[in-house]
Amino acid sequence: MMQPDDELCLCFHVTRRKVENHLRLNRVVRASQLAECYGAGTGCGWCRPFLIRLFEAAQAAAKANEPATADLPDAADYAHGRAAHVRSGGGVPPQGATPLPESPLPESQSQDPSRHADEDGSS
Ligand code: FES
After folding, report:
1. Which of 47, 86, 100 to mutate to test the pocket of ligand 1 (most atoms within 8 A of CB)?
2. Does 79 reside within a domain?
3. Domain total for the chain?
4. Which of 10, 25, 61, 105 has the smallest set of CB atoms within 10 Å of its CB?
């Protein structure tokens, strides 16, 4: 599970803790407003679904008057998922972003369901 000091937005070096504090201390009504937290989510786009997850957890916690809890992947799996996202054309990290890991994907993610067996070349 992602720890508080792990980077949630690897493009802009925004930790999980910064995002959770931002959600706690500011009146955030839309997940897209998390871009105001040091630019989180405005690079390659990989972290956006996870920002939404934290946002929704914070909303639910506020309603229930309980501390927010959200399950996020551990940092290594997360970084490899981002690498796959970027390498498949999902988005481009800005200059100065945390570099993509070079090691292969962990076994749990090594079977790529996006492989295309056939392509229609008609035009
Ligand atoms: S990891 Fe957040 S935009 Fe790339």
Report:
1. 47
2. yes
3. 1
4. 25
